[in-house]
Amino acid sequence: MVHVLVNGAAAWNTLVRLPSLPEPRSHMQFASGYHDGLGGTSAGKAVTLAALGVDVTLSTVLGDDDLADRVRSAIAHDRLTLLAEPARGGRTERHVNLMSDDGSRVSLYLELPASKGTPPDVLAALETAAVAVLDLADSSVPLLAAARDRGVPIWCDVHDDDGAGAYARPFAEAADVLLVSADRLADPRAYLQARVDAGCRLAVCTDGSRGAIALDADGWWSVGVAPVAEVLDTNGAGDAFFAGLLSATLDGLGTGAALARASATGALAVATTDLGAPRATAKAADELARSVDVRRG
Fold first, then answer.
1. What would you report as the CA-atom Rg of the chain, rounded to the nearest whole angstrom?
2. What is the C-alpha separation between 290 and 297, in angstroms, rounded?
3. Cα separation, 199 vs 216, whole angstroms
4. In which element (H, E) is residue 98 found?
5. What residues contact residue 166 under an 8 Å CB cut-off, 6+ apart?
């Protein structure tokens, strides 16, 4: 049975929609909407992978508060096993995300729980994993070496890494497959080229409504976007893209078809207010993927 370990954040978020992000001055602004829901990049990947038919173990840190109960309820799925380490202080991670109509976001961290170490059950899950998805979190750092020692392929999402910051470096350097956003990269192609030259099997840079580019040992890929009738929420779209790419790879699809499913899964995510695409299916993603232009070059 194919099994994936995902390690990193699961949180409870308040998402506030605004016409535009606030300017850095004192003023009043009216929200166009708001809601509470599941947050955390690892939770977004895990629920989308489970929806796409992948057996996944989510290793995270949760408190003993009512927010932890909400997170547990939101991620419940027959294909998802939760390993929740108790947070120091007992408080679950919590954010307020300001989301603008153009897709920009500011995340305000209200609570960031600390890990107590690597629990034995996480290492046991790693032993049987076909892939280790190690997100940016302190708890993932020791797992980078542990996965490498066990020969488990490492997939990392370094989000808006700028190529210079120290925190993302171990993740970018350890990844067999790497996903990054174009948001803070002056030269995305140079960034991806450096990673592939260093041994990364596939490096992908997403750029919102402009699609994505990718690089493997055989050259460049250009990835278009899937059509979306209405963008409701971009929160977790990158996580859904990642999950679509991983699920397609595990299903044996080639790189081009996997990138098409990734783009389609990201499109399914922005058409819902949920984190990621928790109600997607591989069939629905592949049907939508037929409209995605993926080509070499």
1. 18
2. 19
3. 10
4. strand 94-100
5. none
53 in the Ramachandran plot: left (φ > 0), alpha (ψ -120 to 50) or beta?
left
Q: Is the pTM of this model over 0.85?
A: yes
Q: Give Cβ neighbours of residue 206 (< 8 Å, ≥ 6 apart).
A: 179, 180, 181, 182, 212, 238, 241, 266
Return the exposure string of 232-242: e unless at least 16 CB atoms fall within 10 Å of the residue's CB, then b. Answer: ebbbbbbbbbb
CB 38 within 8 A of CB 69: no
Residue 264 CB coordination number (10 Å): 29
Instruction: Please name the residue that has the structure tokens 């081009």.
Output: 256
Distance CA 297, CA 234 (A): 27
Map residue 294 onto helix, strand or coil: strand
Closest residue by Cα to residue 268 from 249, 254, 252, 247: 247
Fold of 3-21+32-296: UDP-N-acetylmuramoyl-L-alanine:D-glutamate ligase (3.40.1190)
- Sign of the alpha-carbon torsion through 169, 88, 11, 258: positive
pLDDT, tens only, 68-127: 999 999 999 999 999 999 998 899 999 999 988 877 889 999 988 877 778 899 999 999
Work out the angle at residue 120's Cα, subtended by the Cα atoms of residues 12 and 49, and round it to the nearest 5 degrees.
Answer: 45
Nearest to 250 by CA among 79, 38, 72: 79
Angle at 42 between CA 54 and CA 85, to 5 degrees: 105
**For residue range 257-280, what is the model confidence (pLDDT) as tens digits?**
999 999 999 999 998 889 999 999
Distance CA 58, CA 129 (A): 12
**Ranges of H-type helices in the chain:** 41-51, 66-75, 120-127, 141-150, 169-174, 188-197, 237-250, 255-270, 282-289
